[in-house]
Amino acid sequence: MSKDNELKLPTAIIFDWDDTLVDNWESINSALNTTFRAMGKKSFSLSKTRNRVRKSMRESFPILFGNRWKEASDLFLNEMRKDHLTKLEVISGIPGLLEGIKDIGIPMGIVSNKNGDLLRNEVNFLGWEKFFVSVVGANDAEIDKPDKAPVILALKLGKIRMSSSIWFVGDSPSDMECANNAGIFSVLLHSEKFKNRDFTRFQPELLFASPKKMLDYLVRINS
To answer: Which range marks the domain in which residue 125 is found?
Structure first.
């Protein structure tokens, strides 16, 4: 579905967090490399961290650190808490997008694989709790993204009825997979920036090159 008259206004919009609304990779990369060094492993470059870190800790850390993964998780979280707020950067155009969606009256939520407590701290630090009816991070649901469980939880917490017209807006193949698993509409934001990522298995149903283009589209189909 690509024509305006084939799409109704979404009944709700679920956003991913990192690389979709904010950039916190400097903090993530620093905390991860401190953890790697403590565990006797080689560090990741910033670009490698951006491209490789997609799964939640309870899925990825057992693979990276074996039976020491819980120790590594504690170390990583302690390092993240030191500077994840001061290094948090809002992606250009996002505040205007969120304000515009709020003005239209579409409820919004967040589903991320970032630790739930860290995620909510970041949302509150930015003063963005006013935008979101629910904020769901890693470990909040029984299974993490790309499973549908965190989406179901976000809708439940936000008192939003499940519908195929709900949008899941993200930047990665796992976001599109999550939308597919939940039976909702997949939307790729910053499509030009992330066009080289492999969306072969789960292709976005709608693409926007910028937050402004997404808001313009929503305003148009709301008129």
So the answer is: 4-23+90-222
